[in-house]
Structures are given as structure tokens and as C-alpha cells.
Amino acid sequence: MFLENTVNHKEQFGWIEVICGSMFSGKTEELIRRLKRAQFAKQKVEIFKPSVDIRYNEEMVVSHDANEIRSTPVPAAANIPILADGCEVVGIDEAQFFDDEIVRVCNDLANKGIRVIVAGLDMDFKGNPFGPMPNLMATAEYVTKVHAICTRTGNLAQYSYRKSQSDALVLLGETEEYEPLSRAAYYKAMRRDKAQNTGLNLTEDSDLTPKDTDA
């Protein structure tokens, strides 16, 4: 649960909200929903995203279902404080692509009385914590973890499985590159990929064992 429109006449303060999850889990959709509510309330809102993210539009934050809101692309987190001057609410999308400076930037903004709403992937395609997201989640007042639906089991999905063979940490893509998987489906897929890379013959229904899930 997070607070909105909190007023303290004796002390000005802000806070940080983090929306995290896998790909196709609705992170950006939830970010846009909260920001549009703030705009409707006549609050001064600025939205930022990393300039590397140009999948849908260079200047718009766009969710997978085409909901959108105008944003300012920035090359680094250090650009945000200057552009956010005078704002009441700051939104940041795809925070995992920013440098570690984004943690200090978000906390500085919150300390100045600004509501900061951040969305990003909590794990990379290998299932490891992604960039500055763990530190943002640790320092945030409110963390919302959203889930996709596993394309193979129909259960809740929290992993972003990369279907291509690229090993690059940052690889922009959509359904042709990624699919959301549950824990069991993800580790079965990773085990199968590892077996294929080492020349082993592994069936789809083979049981998981700890030694097969090593990174």
C-alpha cells in the first residue's frame, strides 16, 4: 500500500515507490496509471527514461498494451535532478538500465519533498538482481512486485526468459526475444539450454536437480 496526496504543513517530505517484476508483468502500465492520476490532480509531474530505450518511441514511455505518457529520455541518472526542478512527482521507467547514481538521485529527490515512482526489472535474464534495482527497493518506502502469466504453465511468472542466444546483459526486445516464466518453467528451460550447450540429451520433462541449476 502506498500513500498519495499526503500533506504535512510543518514538514515537507517525499518518498520512493518502486514497481518491479518480470517483463510483461504490467510495471510500466502501473507507473503510467499512478502518474496520470497525479497529473489529473494538477500536480507537476516529470517522467524520465533511459535514452537507450527506444523500443516503441524515443520520447514516450509506452506499455506493452500501447498505453503511453510523454517522457524525457536521459543518458544518465545525473541529468534527472536538473530537469526535475520544481516537480511534485517524478516518474522513472526502466530504472535497471541506469547507472548506480540513480539510487542517490531518487533519495535526494525524495528528501526534497518529491514523490518518486520508479519502475524496472528486478532480475535480468539470468535470474540475477538487475543493476541498481536491489538498492532502490531497499531504500524505498513502498515496493510493489507485479507478476506476468507464465506462457508455459499459466502460473504466476517472475522470470524473464531470453529465447535468443545472446549473452549481452542489455538486449532490448519484446515477445520475439523474451517470455515470462514461472520458477519451475524458467529453471527447466535454463537446464535444457545448458544441456544443449554442453551436448547433453535432456528431455522437456526431466526432473530438476540442484546441480543442473548452477549458473
TrEMBL record:
GO terms for cellular component: cytosol. Its main location: cytoplasm. Transmembrane segments: none annotated. It is an enzyme of class 2 (transferase). Its EC number is 2.7.1.21. GO terms for biological process: DNA biosynthetic process; thymidine metabolic process. It comes from the Bacteria. Keywords: ATP-binding, Cytoplasm, DNA synthesis, Kinase, Nucleotide-binding, Transferase. It catalyses: thymidine + ATP = dTMP + ADP + H(+). Pfam families: TK. GO terms for molecular function: ATP binding; thymidine kinase activity. It is found in: Cytoplasm. The active site is at residue 94. Coiled coil: none annotated. The keyword Cytoplasm applies. Substrate binds at residues 170-173, 178. ATP binds at residues 21-28, 93-96. The keyword ATP-binding applies. HAMAP family: Thymidine_kinase. Homotetramer. PANTHER family: THYMIDINE KINASE (PTHR11441), THYMIDINE KINASE, CYTOSOLIC (PTHR11441:SF0). Belongs to the thymidine kinase family. This is Thymidine kinase. It comes from Formosa algae.
